[in-house]
Design brief:
Strand order of the largest sheet: 1-2-10-9
Strand content: 15-25%
Radius of gyration: 17 Å
Distance between the termini: 25 Å
Order of helices and strands: EEHHHHEEEEEEHHEEHHHH
Shape: globular
Number of domains: 2
Largest sheet: 4 strands, mixed
């Protein structure tokens, strides 16, 4: 059984506090951006307008295949009342570009190049944390076999998922919320 703590009305899995995790792109090759699934990355309604506004700056980092998909069908879709990014062949997110053999996010690249002020969808920024709604937000650790290298690297760095995801947690909630979580974790 997974146990949770309640912070400001948000349920948070203790796995987020205890599990060691640090992404290792050199090994996983950006698997979170290329997972085989008919579902893309979850989007907030507000993020669609933001991404749409910055799309011309983001597109310059995308492959012809991604640009063609976006031009033909858009960059997002709704399935089962959930908004999400489109993917190509139920695999690569339409915002994937490749740096060698590593899948990366074109939105984040435009952000890092200071061309836009939006880093990426919050669901991507929070990963491996997933937010579900059961009458309020529930934060849980989403385990994927492709992230096994991140667990190993997390043991080396000593960072918990909470620590690894500090910036996106503060972005999604606030500094005070993060500090309360950190206090639960004995920091």
């Amino acid at each position: 059984m997974i146990d949770f703590n309640s912070i400001d009305g948000v349920l948070v899995s203790n796995q987020i506090l205890k599990t060691k995790f640090t992404c290792n792109l050199e090994v996983c090759k950006g698997a979170c951006c290329t997972m085989k699934s008919e579902y893309g990355a979850p989007l907030l309604k507000t993020e669609i307008g933001i991404i749409d506004k910055y799309l011309p700056k983001i597109k310059k980092y995308l492959s012809k295949k991604s640009i063609s998909e976006i031009d033909k069908n858009g960059f997002w879709e709704e399935k089962e009342s959930e908004l999400m990014t489109r993917s190509i062949n139920n695999e690569d997110c339409v915002f994937v570009y490749y740096d060698g053999d590593i899948a990366k996010c074109a939105i984040e690249k435009a952000y890092n190049n200071e061309e836009i002020d939006f880093i990426k969808p919050i669901s991507c920024h929070l990963f491996p944390i997933r937010v579900t709604d059961f009458g309020g937000d529930v934060l849980k650790y989403e385990q994927y076999e492709d992230c096994e290298p991140a667990l190993k690297k997390g043991e080396e760095t000593g960072l918990s998922i909470l620590e690894f995801c500090e910036k996106p947690i503060k972005r999604a909630y606030n500094n005070e919320f993060f500090n309360k979580l950190e206090n639960l974790n004995g920091k």
